[in-house]
Write a structure and sequence with these properties.
The complex is a heterodimer of chains A (about 270) and B (about 70). Chain A is α/β, with parallel strands linked by helices. Chain A has 8 helices and 12 strands.
Chain lengths: ~270, ~70
């Protein structure tokens, strides 16, 4: 009989029970998930059952996590994502959410850059915790990414990106994500990437403040290899603050555009 | 002469510079990225870069927030 144990196909004798399977392969496991549901009582296994054995608080090994992701995403998709390097310029509301989405899908290498520290006012939308106030954002985000997937390689730059240092810091990237706050910095990064990092796609964002309708946030190709996310006009300002829902929508448009580019698909 | 501006035809006086086009459109030069025929125009060249008939111009404007 063939069953799946922790996403790997194994053979076992007919009549083997869930608990016997656990005792044989992972006696220390606290939790048995059988076909997606926690199993508290023993029962005989059936052909094709999917069983996951878990110890509470245990971090899966890199190989185990790889196998899980590969099974979920399909091996072709997983290897493209795993071999990718993505640079994220600014890790505020947009950049921290983009980084988390990309780490969750197992992007192999993230380059994150920001000069700022976590402030209380950031917590309404940025992916930090109250006990991280005062920490440099790139260090706090690195910790958070590590808790999501410790096998994603993260390169941090705690400083200000300029037209002079962007080409060097982002040289390795397959795709660059513009996630700055200030409009002139967005324009500077766009100019620099399109001019000095030839061939690299850039996924930028503009117009995501406030609580306007979700569906006005779009992804569009604005020029050769420049993709723009947002409604194009809603600037942050008094009465039009940046809030988690709409910033999150834009950030996930950006993350999905990155994923589509990695898979050779047109983001628009 | 006629250029293509963000995908649409636009009549323009010969000799118009990037700076004067941005001025006409009321766009802040520090908040835009400009491509002519798929080549980016560096900010410091906005004053002395002029358009030619048939140019394909893309102007992307950024607003703050992130």
């Amino acid at each position: 009989m063939t069953v799946w144990l922790n996403e790997k196909k194994i053979r076992c004798e007919a009549g083997t029970t869930l608990f016997q399977l656990r005792d044989r392969h992972k006696p220390e496991a606290d939790i048995i998930i059988a076909n997606g549901f926690p199993a508290s009582e023993d029962r005989p296994l059936e052909e094709g059952d999917r069983v996951v054995l878990i110890c509470r608080g245990e971090t899966p090994s890199e190989t185990e996590l790889e196998a899980l992701m590969s099974a979920r995403h399909t091996p072709g998709v997983h290897s493209k994502v795993r071999n990718a390097t993505i640079a994220i310029a600014g890790v505020g509301g947009l950049g921290s959410a983009v980084a988390i989405a990309l780490a969750r899908i197992g992007v192999g290498h993230l380059i994150i850059a920001d000069f700022d520290v976590v402030e209380p006012s950031n917590l309404n939308r940025q992916q930090y915790f109250v006990d991280q106030i005062g920490l440099p954002k790139v260090l706090a985000l690195n910790d958070n990414l590590r808790r999501i997937n410790p096998y994603v390689r993260v390169t941090t730059f705690n400083g200000r990106l300029t037209a002079a240092n962007i080409p060097e810091f982002f040289a390795e990237a397959d795709v660059v994500v513009e996630a700055f706050d200030a409009a002139d910095q967005k324009a500077m990064l766009t100019e620099t990437v399109l001019m000095k990092l030839s061939g690299k796609p850039l996924v930028a964002a503009s117009g995501l403040a406030g609580h306007g309708p979700s569906n006005t946030v779009v992804t569009r190709r604005a020029a050769g290899r420049l993709y723009m996310v947002g409604d194009g006009e809603t600037a942050a300002g008094p009465g039009q603050g940046l809030m988690a829902p709409r910033v999150g929508i834009a950030a996930h448009h950006q993350a999905n555009a990155v994923l589509r580019l990695l898979l050779g698909e047109e983001p628009q | 002469m006629t250029i293509t501006f963000n995908g649409k035809p636009k009549p323009l006086q010969a000799g118009t510079s990037v700076t004067s086009l941005l001025d006409e459109l009321d766009l802040d030069p520090s908040r835009v990225a400009v491509e002519i025929n798929r080549d980016i125009v560096p900010r410091e060249r906005f004053d002395d870069t002029t358009f030619s008939d048939g140019d394909q111009i893309e102007v992307v404007q950024f607003v703050g927030g992130g």
